[in-house]
Write a structure and sequence with these properties.
Layout: E1 17-21, H1 25-33, H2 36-57, H3 70-79, H4 81-91, H5 93-99, E2 101-105, E3 108-113, E4 119-124, E5 128-134, H6 137-142, E6 145-151, E7 155-158, E8 163-166, E9 169-174, H7 177-196
Antiparallel strand pairs: 1-2, 2-3, 3-4, 5-6, 6-9, 7-8
Length: about 220
């Protein structure tokens, strides 16, 4: 018997799972490696390594190479922190991939992820207002795409800057991005129509807009 994942255990009894999946592993890892931090880390590492080499070759007062002290190595070990952060992000991308999973039910979208912590979140279709497709360079290279969703209750507040920002919900690097996009749009329309249609005093069957949702209160 297959073991239920942590994300699947969040699905309520009575919900119908319509689709589930994970990012394409190759594209997911490539995006973790070739991110904007790569260029910055390379420049930073080249500068520090070049500086270390020049210091190591610089002659002392006697005209002989003086090398560099242990404290210099410690200094540059900390100074190379951006490089270590980038490399750790690449190495931990495999753990991040393992924790990433997507599930779509007849009520909403479930997404899990995280590296050091495991995070699960769910958004009902009633809170979605925008659904888009995004395809970056690696998405196009590997034949996958992202489904990006936003809507009500998607705002996050930053206490340090006193600013609010819009945080989207993304199903990343999936080969069925077009099918998933169409599925979410249809479910979003059905749920919205079923919720807002005022006629018939919401009977056992809602006769408005020919939606698939019947008998849901």
């Amino acid at each position: 018997m297959a073991t239920r994942s942590d994300l699947e255990s969040m699905v309520s009894q009575g919900e119908q799972v319509l689709w589930r999946g994970k990012p394409q592993k190759k594209c997911f890892i490539f995006e973790c490696i070739f991110n904007p931090m790569l260029f910055f880390a390379l420049i930073w590492a080249a500068f520090d390594i070049g500086f270390i080499v020049m210091m190591n070759k610089a002659p002392d007062d006697n005209g002989s190479g003086n090398g560099i002290g242990g404290f210099i190595f410690v200094f540059f070990a900390f100074h190379l922190m951006p490089v270590w952060i980038y490399l750790s992000g690449v190495l931990l991308s495999f753990r991040k991939y393992r924790n990433t999973e997507y599930i779509i039910t007849d009520r909403g979208v479930y997404i899990s992820g995280g590296v050091f912590t495991y995070n699960c979140q769910m958004k009902p279709f009633a809170e979605l207002s925008n659904v888009n497709i995004h395809r970056g360079i690696f998405d196009q290279m590997f034949g996958v795409g992202d489904v990006v969703m936003s809507g009500t209750n998607f705002m996050t507040y930053n206490n340090s800057t006193n600013n609010s920002s819009l945080r989207g919900l993304t199903i990343s690097d999936i080969s069925e991005y077009q099918e998933v996009f169409s599925m979410i749009k249809q479910l979003q329309t059905d749920v919205y129509a079923d919720t807002m249609y005022p006629n018939d005093l919401r009977p056992a069957e809602n006769h408005g807009y020919q939606t698939r949702y019947k008998g849901r209160m």
